[in-house]
Structures are given as C-alpha cells and as structure tokens.
Amino acid sequence: MIVSMKKVSLVVLDSQREASLEALRDVGVMHLDLQPEQGERFHDLLGKKDLLERAIGALPDRDGKAPAPVDGPVDLDAALAIAKEVDAASQREFCCHEEIALYRREIDRLSAWGDFDPRDIAALKEKGVDIRLCEISKAQLAEMPAGIQPFIISESKTGYRIAAVIRDASVAFPFEETHLPQDRLSEIPGLIDIKTAEADRHAAEVHSHYANKPMLQRALAQVDELLGFDAAVTSMKKDGPIAYITGFIPVKKADALSAAAAKHGWGLIIADPADGEVVPTLVENPWWIRAINPVFSLLGTIPGYKEFDISIWFLLFFTIFWAMIIGDAAYGLLFLLFTIVGRIVFRKAPFEPFLLLFITSIATITWGAITGTWFGAEAVARHSAFSWMVVPEIASFASMAKGQTDVFVMHVCFLIGCVHLTIAHIMCFIRQFPSLKAYAEVGRLSLLWGLYFLVRMLVLKMELNPVAIYMVGGGLLFILVFAEQEGKFFAGMIKGFSNILMVLLGSVGFFSDIVSYVRLFAVGLASLEVAKSFNGMATGSLTSGNVLLIVLGVVVLFFGHALNIILSCMSLVVHGVRLNMLEFSGHLGMEWTGVEYRPFKRNSSDSNSI
User: Fold this and answer.
1) Is the model's pLDDT at 477 over the cut of 90?
2) How far, CA to CA in Å, does 463 sit from each of 92, 239, 455, 510?
3) Can you list the alpha helix ranges (DSSP code H) found in 117-170?
4) What span, in angstroms and rounded, lies between the C-alpha atoms of 5 and 306?
5) pTM
6) Rounded to whole angstroms, how far apart are CA atoms 361 and 356?
C-alpha cells in the first residue's frame, strides 16, 4: 500500500541552521524539498564524488576473497589522494590502449603500401621532390594531369595505389591523398609492444590499490551524505532571523518529528499536501508481496502518490505469466534448484529476489505438469509418473489431448486478460465512488466483457453470445454519460457525448488489449516447439550406440535447452512485464511518475567534512 503523507514546514533560527539540520538528520524521517540551485561547495563535492566513482569503477572485482568492508568513518583526504592515484593510473592505461588501437589501425591502413620510411619522403620534399601517395581508378590514371608523374605501387580492387611525383608546383593535385604515417610499417609492432608493456605497468599500479576499494566505497558514502547535507543547508530559505524548509513525512512518523521539534525548539507545521504538489511515494507491503519489488527496481518504476499500488496484482499475474511463458515443468525444477542453491550461497543477499524465483518456479512446475511438458519430451509426459497430472484440455501433446487444446488455451488467455483488466476497472470504481464518474467504470466493464465475447467469435470461431451487443452498446452509453461528470449532470453528459469519437477509438483499444493476452499462448507454444526441435536433433545421436555421437547428442540437448531457457526469459521480460505495465496499468490510468520517498537521515555512523 502507498503510505499516507503529511506536508511539513520546519522553522528554525538561522543561527542554528546547520545544528538543526544535524538534529533533523538524526531523526531521519523527513523527505526534504531540495532546490536545484546549489553553491560552490556542492559542486566541489560533486567533483570529488565523480573522482571516487571513477576510481572505484577502475578497480575490478577479483576472483577469490574480497577485502573486508570498512566500518565507521574514513579519512576523506586520504581516500581522495588514493582515488587520484588510481584515476591517474587508469587514465594513463586508457591512453596507452588508445595509442595501441591507433597503431593497429595504421597497420591495417598501410599494409597494402608495403614498408617504407615516411621520413625519406619528407626529406625528398625538403629537397624539392614532392611525392604524394593516393589511390586512383584506372580512368583517373589514364587522365593524369600533365606535371604529375605517377608510379604504380600496387593494384587495388578499384584501381591503383600510386606514388605521384609533382613536377610542376603550379598544378593542383586532384586526388585524395593517403596521409603519411609518423613511423615506418616495420617499426609499428615494436611500438605496440612498448605501449602494451606501459599499459600493463599502469594496470598493475591500479590493481595495487585493490585492497583500498572498501575504503573508497566508504568515502563515497560519506561524500554522498555531505552532498545531501549541503543541499539541505542551501535549500533552507531565510526570512530575517529565521530559516525554514519544507518536506514530507509519513503520517505514522509525525509524532517522532513533533517530539524532536519540541526538544530542539523548532517551529513545526504539519498539514495535508495540497492538490498538485509533488508528494514522494513510500510503498509498504507484507514480506510476501515484497517479492515483486526486484522487478520494480529493475524497471525503475515508482507509482505516483495518488496512483495505485499494484504490487499484489503484479505479483499474482506476473507469476501466472511466468508459468505460461516458460511453460516447462523441468525448467521450473531447474529454476527452483538454482534458487535454493543461490540462497544457500548468498545468505546475506536480499531475500526478495529468491522469494520471487521460488514462487514463479513452483508456478512453472505446476503449469508444466498439468500440460505434460517436461523438457518438451512427449515420452516423459506419457510416463506413468507424470501422465496422471496432465489435464487433457490443455495438454501439450496431441496423443494426450482432449479436443482442440490450442483453442482452449487461447480461450484461457483471453479470460485471464479480461479478469486482469476487470480488476483494474473495479479499483478505479472504488477510488472514484461515490462520484458519478465512477459509473463510467461500470460502462468500461460492460464494454470489456462484451468485446470478450466478440474476440471469442472472431479469433476462436465460437458462437457470439447475443448479450455481447447489448453489453458493448450499454457500456459505450455509460461511458458517454458518466465519464465527464464533475458536478452538473447534463453539462457532463453533453461534454461526454462531444468526445464520442475518442470513446469509440478507445473501445478499439479495449479489443486489442484483450487480444494482446494471446501472446501467453503464442510464446509458450514457441518455447515448446524449440524444445521439441532440439530433442529431435539429438534423438538420432543418442540412440546410435556410437559414443561420440551420444556425446554430441548430449551437447545438443544441453545447449539447445539452455538457449531455449534464455529466449523464454527474454520473452518473459518483454511480454510478462508488458501485460502488467502497459495493458493493466493503462486501464488504471497510471503514469508511473512517482518520486521515491528519501528521508533526510544519516547513512554512515559518522562523517567528516572535506
């Protein structure tokens, strides 16, 4: 759920501005309204932060035991000195690699010209012999201007490489010259070796500071904290002897801030946020719903303060989509195994990603078992140990199916889509009730389910339910009448009917959104066919009796199913996330423009100034 917020105005004596902010940071509950304009010290801190980030990025993680993290504050001056050394060495290494790349490009460019010393050409030019290198076509060679003597060096695909001697300085050279190198071709490999050795020395200098990486990371955290504090100081507005700053706090944290204000003698105003204000969003859910948080973090999406928290619905339907898209019980078992092993190995890692993988793995195993899909192998599905779990109406293999399973599964997809979108409109109805506008959601629900019957007829060739026409018509009428209601009924109705074209176009969007859910069937079917194809490729080798062919068959199976899993996971990101973030969120009217709640608090145990 999205936590309710209060707007806070905090008033302090200007002479106690920094001391008050230090105390406020210790309370750690207020999200501050920070001004974008910052002073010279802020930009100086930004430069130091950038230096530390570059230095940390230049220190790659090594195999084996990582250096122990640093607890408590570090000497920022010492950390910055180390960061400068690392950054300088890293920049020198980068420049060496750039020069090496340039030398190699020179080899590629000049290899067709053979080995020559450009200094000889320069010396001849000083003595009045002007020699130019260029590539020309056969036609250009035939029409060579008087005063230019060509000497053919070699033949190219399009013509000739020539050394042109300029006999008459008044004649303009009409061809594009090949620029002379600084060094002869035979010298360049030696120069590359010299630069490679120099780059290795600089790399070794960088790596020698690997043990200082935790120190630099801790220093970066301290600089971040100083940046936040400096932004808070400069964002405080002054009015005579007092200074003030505004922000937001969760309602349940108001008592803690009030107690701190009473203790330190601050003036404090706590009120409801005004309409139009950008209020930060804090989402709090039970531990099992937080399993979906890694997906939101990956997408970088935050609901607006007045939007919906769809975490529970996202988790529920994302799990269903995951199971149907991956579709294979054996793949689900592999995911479950890797999840358990990963959690054992990475005990200190956040719990939510492992919980999400556990839930989705169980769902995938369940769907794969009832469809009879185990590595896409029909023989496995028909085995008595697995066949009893298969539901014939959705079985993956024709020998175990009952009726047209493709049609039935597509029907299930459309039904899932309608239920998914129905939840969105019910949420909108509850949010808007008792306003008359809420009844437009009733119309959208009627339109949605009427179009569901139409989709069944057009896509699945099922008989059209006569009620569908009335549901579509009635739904459109409700939308036109109630969508624009803002107090005056007839004025709202007239305004609604004036938007009839947009409403009709929106109904087409409803139709396409329902059809969009068929991707669950299509992607799952594609995954099954890929698995069956690799199984067919390997079957002959595995039954040949030849050891080498058996090994080859095993390799084909391994890499084939690994590729299929990777492709399925990519499809999951594209399609499974899309149905939640576009179709479902679109029917909720969500824009995902929220600002994350970031309380002004002390992140490190202590921080020293720079």
Assistant:
1) yes
2) 74, 74, 11, 20
3) 118-126, 138-142
4) 11
5) 0.80
6) 8
Residue 545, φ and ψ in degrees, nearest 5 = 85, -10
Q: DSSP assignment, residue 151?
A: E
Which tokens hold the place of 193?
A: 């070796």
**Can you tell me which residue has the tokens 């001056």?**
77
What are the counts of helices (DSSP H) followed by strands (DSSP E) for the chain?
Answer: 23, 8
Residue 153, H or E segment: strand 148-155
pLDDT at 63: 58
| Residues 113/119/123/124 CA torsion (nearest 10 deg) | -10
End-to-end CA distance of the chain: 41
Please, which residues bridge with residue 31 across strands? 248
CA–CA separation, 314 and 579 (whole Å):
9
Q: How far apart are CA 64 and CA 395, in angstroms?
A: 47
- For residues 431 and 277, give the distance between their C-alpha atoms in angstroms, rounded to a whole number: 19
Peptide bond into 434 cis (omega under 30): yes
* Neighbour-count burial for 75-92, b at 16+ CB within 10 Å, e otherwise: ebeebbebbebbbebbeb
Helix (H, G, I), strand (E, B) or coil at 390: coil
Arithmetic mean of pLDDT, 530-534: 90
Q: What is the pLDDT of residues 571-585, one digit of tens each?
A: 888 888 999 998 999
- Does pLDDT of 609 surpass 50? no
3-state SS, residue 283: strand
pLDDT in tens, 190-200: 999 999 999 99
**Mean pLDDT value of segment 390-410:** 87
**255-273: average pLDDT:** 92
